[in-house]
């Protein structure tokens, strides 16, 4: 069993938690999820990313800023053109958290299933 109170593990857990919080915050917006879907096909400029959305550019750029702060995307600027690219590593933190939750619930359902089967067995014995 891992002792999460050890300073190096506690710091790592807090960092992981902060990354996961940022990722879920970024993913809470349909616009940002659509941007990520677009970027999953390859890098794109701000104007390419903004084209499908009916929104003012400053508002759209705020969505890009949230994605960049959460480290889900990176950007490079060449002249006046900024190009964004997806950075999938933080998604792994969210996936790890979800997988952990799934394991907890699957374990609970397995124990519940065992309990129900024991009750059925007792009922059929009597």
UniProtKB/TrEMBL annotation:
The family database entries (NCBIfam families) matched by this protein are listed as: HTH_metalloreg (NF033788)
Q: Which residues form the HTH arsR-type domain?
A: 12-106
Where in the sequence is the signal peptide annotated?
none
* Protein name stated in the entry: HTH arsR-type domain-containing protein
Question: What PANTHER family does UniProt report for this protein, alphabetically?
Answer: SLL0088 PROTEIN, TRANSCRIPTIONAL REGULATORY PROTEIN
Which Gene3D superfamilies does the record match to this protein? Answer: Winged helix-like DNA-binding domain superfamily/Winged helix DNA-binding domain
Q: Which Pfam families match?
A: HTH_20
Q: What is the lineage of its organism?
A: Bacteria, Pseudomonadati, Pseudomonadota, Betaproteobacteria, Neisseriales
Q: Which SUPFAM superfamilies does its entry note?
A: Winged helix' DNA-binding domain
């Amino acid at each position: 069993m891992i002792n999460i109170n050890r300073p190096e593990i506690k710091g790592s857990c807090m960092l992981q938690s902060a990354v996961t919080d940022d990722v879920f915050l970024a993913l809470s917006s349909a616009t940002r999820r659509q941007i990520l879907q677009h970027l999953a096909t390859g890098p794109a400029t701000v104007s390419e990313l903004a084209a499908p959305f009916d929104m003012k550019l400053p508002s759209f750029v705020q969505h890009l800023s949230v994605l960049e702060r959460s480290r889900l995307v990176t950007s490079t600027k060449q002249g006046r053109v900024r190009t964004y690219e997806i950075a999938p590593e933080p998604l792994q933190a969210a996936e790890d958290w979800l997988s952990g939750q799934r394991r907890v619930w699957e374990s609970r359902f397995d124990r519940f299933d065992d309990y129900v089967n024991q009750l059925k067995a007792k009922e059929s014995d009597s």
